[in-house]
Amino acid sequence: MIHVKPYFCEAKNSMSILKKILIADDEPDILEIIQFNLQAEGYQVITAKNGDEAIEAAKKNQPDLIILDIMMPGKNGIEVCNILRIQPAFKDTLIVFLSALSDEQTEIRGLETGADDYLTKPISPKILVSKVNALFRRLNKDKDETEIVTVGELVIDREKYMIKFKGNDIVLARKEFELLALLASKPGKVFLRNEILNQVWGTEVIVGDRTIDVHIRKIRQKLNLDCITTVKGVGYKFEL
Amino acid sequence: MIHVKPYFCEAKNSMSILKKILIADDEPDILEIIQFNLQAEGYQVITAKNGDEAIEAAKKNQPDLIILDIMMPGKNGIEVCNILRIQPAFKDTLIVFLSALSDEQTEIRGLETGADDYLTKPISPKILVSKVNALFRRLNKDKDETEIVTVGELVIDREKYMIKFKGNDIVLARKEFELLALLASKPGKVFLRNEILNQVWGTEVIVGDRTIDVHIRKIRQKLNLDCITTVKGVGYKFEL
DNA sequence: GTTTGCGTTAACAATTTGATAATACACTGA
DNA sequence: TCAGTGTATTATCAAATTGTTAACGCAAAC
Fold first, then answer.
1. CB of A6 nearer than 7 A to strand C
2. Cys-Cys crosslink for A48: which of A54, A100, A126, B156, Cβ 3.0 to 4.6 Å?
3. Would you say B20 and B63 are in contact if contact means Cβ atoms under 8 Å apart?
């Protein structure tokens, strides 16, 4: 299995991750205005011209936020939302409707479909950006934790970029550190290889399958204890 | 007229923990309307008539969500928001502005103050309720991500990819796990062989009939108990 | 300019998993 | 009872997946 994407990536510190936003609208002008403003704010933007394109682009890019027009040729926004929300991969993705329809029924239906917000056109680009910022702010608030994570006898200090295990300092290379930090962030949870690639390597890099294995091996070697369990055909998990 | 509202239902279920909402507005009418509608939705509502009351009530009741009017006698909404956000106790509290001021500047400033949404009066009570539901839905989503199914003494944890039966951990291979998870997802339901093939193996793969049998057998063997019943000529079902 | 270490890949070994065939078993109705 | 049909069991082999080691390119450090 190989990820085919252009090479453009630095280390992803868990803090400053480039947020990806997918915008789906059939009006090119609106698409362009929103794209411009969000990019100016530092977001990475992907666009789609209709519902089907949106679904495809979502699957391919795994965006952090999806902005959906309601009225689009082919599948409309609400249908797209429904289709995406069913899939586990998009269960937690931020979804916002952006529609010219401002009637109560549609808005309520949109929100009950599982969207996080419903915005009505016309909307000031600046306000839209503010709303988007607010959504991400909320998302990060709930996720962010301390810089120091402790799991049993393992201490992971993001700030100092160091790891202690049973009182001994252990030096890990960056990828090794990120990988271990990811696995240890949810002890017991099985991380799929894809999840690992997305979190540690980012979605834009090409790496082979063995790469993960090799790093896992190095970590196991350095920790001198097999706290990482392989779940064949699924992924890896961290356990004390 | 009856709608199918999957996410709506979810919101109500997760509300088994009664959510507290504080509303601050100097117009008694608005206060009453909003209070009525939110209570009808199952929320516990506290009200305040101005900024100072709002702060006091917030400290006293520690609400889950605070709805703030911007223009209030004494401290205005934005000031209240600022004061609260500084305190650790309200760092993560949901805050929404509800204002008659719809100018861009104020709205942006409101959002940048750390609010989660900015609503403009007049607003339909139903839409307000939908927005509130959406906010809580997002909040809960980030908290409980666990995908654990429990059927009697059998525990299926998708996230950890583990199975416990009568307190013992049982290791299943991927297909075995998926198969058991499928059957246990609807105890008592008979799954046709075709259903099983589609769900576990996917529609693209073609495998013989015996394949299912073999996997069923392995599961029975590992669980050491026949909780899977054969329905001859039809399929299999899970029963404890 | 050389050295060093990281990240990656290639190549092969080791292991696990999954599918099939062959056979045995259970149940049904004539 | 005896075919006839459908399932259980087992062994076996192919395929998929992962583990391990070595080597290479590259960039930063010396």
1. no
2. A54
3. yes
Q: What is the pTM of this model?
A: 0.71
Helix (H, G, I), strand (E, B) or coil at B51: helix
Instruction: Give which of A176, A140, A127 is closest to A156, Cα–Cα.
Output: A176
Pairing of strands A228-231, A235-238: antiparallel
> Is the minimum distance from the CB of A240 to strand C below 7 Å?
no
Are the beta carbons of B139 and A141 separated by less than 8 Å?
A: no
Dump pLDDT digits (tens) for B43-102: 999 999 999 999 999 999 999 999 999 999 889 999 999 999 999 899 889 999 999 977
Query: Number of A:B CB contacts under 8 A?
Result: 89
3-state SS, residue A186 = coil
Nearest to B176 by CA among B220, B137, B112, B114: B220
Helix (H) or strand (E) holding B37: helix B28-40
Both structure tokens of A211: 């790469």
Region of residue A188 (phi > 0: left; psi between -120 and 50: alpha; otherwise: beta): left
- Integer CA distances (angstroms), B232 to A187, A226, B199, B209, B236, in order: 42, 45, 20, 13, 8
Q: CB-CB: which of B108, B130, B173 is closest to A130?
A: B108
N residues, chain B: 240
Q: Crossing angle of helices A104-112/A77-86, nearest 10°?
A: 20
- Predicted confidence (pLDDT) per residue in B91-134, tens digit: 889 999 999 977 899 999 999 999 999 999 889 999 999 999 99
- Residue (of B115, B53, B119) closest to B90 by Cα position: B115
